[in-house]
Design brief:
223 residues; alpha/beta; Rossmann fold; eight-stranded mixed sheet
């Protein structure tokens, strides 16, 4: 039985997206770097949802990430939808973060997304169906958030490139850009944001959107 894979399954958006897909009865595989994070995310998913699998993997470790994705496929079959939600979120002014620090942030924010897509999207294209979604942010670059601004700009470009490569073969590639701080009980509640992921996954092909921006009056940009 195919299902969903969430890479970067923290207790905010990652857990909320997993809950949303589990509500539909889909098997869900959660991937995160730490056991504690995985346990907390898994506990936030109702027990009456679909089957659940937790796997540890660092998004910057290509071998470990690919092995975890393979383990999820071995358990549930090739995923119908894969969500890349891993990110390093921190403030840094121009020149404040070292070059190695910038590269480290890029490795998580963009490199891991590319590794994940390279591992799952070709199979989706062969099957003629699938959804690859990335959590975006920073719709406008800000000088107080250099590494995140660069990373999310990279994610936006990556989504566009993947859409060009795989979209014509049935793979819906899109990002959910969150234009504000994620806080439960507000308009940026993670469960509200998670609805975008489910909607994108179930969109008819003739209405596919490439980016949804949560927090703006105009919420979607269609290529």
């Amino acid at each position: 039985m195919s299902g969903a894979v969430v890479v970067g399954a923290g207790t905010g958006i990652g857990a909320a997206v997993a809950r949303r897909f589990a509500r539909e009865g889909l098997p869900v595989a959660l991937l995160a770097r730490g056991e504690g994070t995985l346990k907390a995310a898994a506990q936030a998913i109702p027990a009456d949802g679909g089957p659940l699998l937790t796997l540890t993997a660092d998004a910057t470790d290509e071998e470990a990430l690919r092995a975890a994705l393979d383990a999820a496929a071995d358990e549930f079959g090739p995923a119908d939808v894969v969500v890349y939600n891993a990110a390093i979120i921190r403030s840094d002014a121009p020149g404040e973060l070292s070059a190695s620090g910038q590269l480290g942030a890029w490795a998580v924010n963009v490199g891991g997304a590319l590794t994940t897509a390279a591992h799952v999207a070709p199979g989706m294209a062969e099957r003629g169906r699938g959804t690859f979604l990335v959590t975006g942010g920073m719709p406008e670059p800000k000088p107080g958030w250099v590494s995140l601004s660069l990373g999310k700009a990279g994610v936006r470009t990556l989504v566009h490139l993947l859409g060009l490569e795989y979209g014509s073969r049935g793979v819906h590639v899109a990002s959910v850009t969150v234009d504000g701080p994620v806080v439960p009980g507000t308009s940026f509640d993670p469960d509200l944001i998670a609805e975008h992921y489910w909607r994108l996954h179930t969109q008819p092909e003739d209405r596919w959107e490439q980016e949804v921006v949560h927090g703006r009056t105009i919420a979607a940009n269609t290529p």
